[in-house]
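Attaching the record inline, Q. Sequence:
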Amino acid sequence: MDDTEFEQVSAAILALFPPLAEVEQRVALTLYQLLAESGPLPTDVLARISGITPAETERMLSSWPGVYRDDDGRIIGYGGLTIAETKHCMRL
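Structure, as predicted:
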């Protein structure tokens, strides 16, 4: 894939996600970081680290596409990053 194709694919993927307000961007970045560093993530932990209430965090997460949870309700995936084993893999 050349640079132009990569940019086109990246733009198409980004267009699938709604624009996020500043606080939502902070929560999303925190979520990516915590998923990359640890195991399943309870919503209240994400809320505490993001500096907002668990209720507000849950409201955000329920409106976002691509949020995946385990049987205990902990977050295990978001926006293409998952700690669950899948048949798909992306290598950068």
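The beta strands are 67-69, 75-78, 81-82. DSSP finds four helices and three strands in the chain.

More tomorrow.
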